[in-house]
Amino acid sequence: MNAKKPPRKKNLTAMKMLGAQLSAGRRAAGFTQRSLAEIVNVDEETIASIEQGRRRLTPDLAVRLDQVLDLKGLLEAGVDNLPEIDQFPMWAELYIQHEQEAIALSLYANQVLPGLLQTEAYARAVLRERVPAYAEDEIETKTAARIGRQDILRRRVPPTVSFVIWEPVLNLAVGGPEVHAEQLRHLRACAELPGLSVQFLPLSSPSHAGLNGPFVLLETPDHQHLAYIEGQRGSQWVSDPDEVSILSRKYAMLRTQALTTQDSMGLLDRLLGEQ
User: Fold this and answer.
1) Is the pLDDT of residue 169 over 90?
2) HSE-up of residue 93 (Cα within 13 Å, Cβ side)
3) Non-local CB neighbours of 238 within 8 Å, separated by 6+ positions
4) Strands 160-166 and 196-201, sheet pairing
5) pLDDT reported for residue 90
6) What is the pTM assigned to this prediction?
7) Residue 1 — very low, low, confident or very high, per pLDDT cuts 50/70/90?
8) I need a labelling partner for 23 at 20 to 30 A (CA). Which of 75, 199, 211, 218 fits?
């Protein structure tokens, strides 16, 4: 039984607002998402994603929708006036929600271990490296939230989760030697969990499909494929099928370039033996 979730704050980004306007106009005109999609010649999922604020409404589609729904240019004006920042909204909160519901996750990391694999001490040490610094109480709140996310790995029916991690991340002794050793032991234990695989891309590899940085691939319970990219100053959802396909192909290549799961556990065992 899922724990009761606290009420979620409304996400009042411009894209969400534009999606709500489309939804209201569609219903007022008596269309379903499917029937509207057929008339404007797009997939039903496209209409659903726009209404949920997960996909950007393009100018040409806005014009067609305005005409079909008799919205007198409302959507076109909204698209023309979208704030620049809303093209790539800060949706970390939305990612956490999808992560909790996902049936499959694939994560590539090349800077720090993914939050789903971090110990409490390691997570706290990572958060303390933030510039500008978090207040101490904020560090504790964020640490607890990060560790709480890991419950999905030990559910009765856990998601299928795959990690590819660049080998130098294993040598990052953030928090000091004791925290580092504890983190390696925890990582080794996680590698034994059902439905979870951990692979390391060795530093000696002559090929590297992830040079552009870390990313996450996610499959929702209704089999929608999404991607999430987090950077220095923000995060970005990727829902366009072509873009998700590119990242999926990158991840598939990374898995072929990485050590096997068995060899990856052997690497962890060797590192632990050196502690």
Assistant:
1) yes
2) 10
3) 226, 227, 228, 229, 244, 247
4) parallel
5) 47
6) 0.68
7) very low
8) 218
Alpha helices (H) in the chain, listed in sequence order:
14-28, 33-40, 44-51, 59-69, 74-80, 92-101, 120-128, 136-148, 177-190, 241-257, 261-273
Strand order in the sheet with 215-219: 196-201, 160-166, 104-109, 215-219, 225-231, 234-238
DSSP summary character for residue 172: -
Closest by CA position to 164, among listed 41, 253, 225, 101 = 253
Please provide the DSSP assignment of 74-124 as one string.
HHHHHHHT--GGGGS---HHHHHHHHHH-SEEEEEESSS--GGG--HHHHH
Judge whether 246 and 153 are in contact, CB under 8 Å. no
Segment 36-81, tens digit of pLDDT: 999 999 989 889 989 987 777 889 999 999 999 999 999 999 888 8
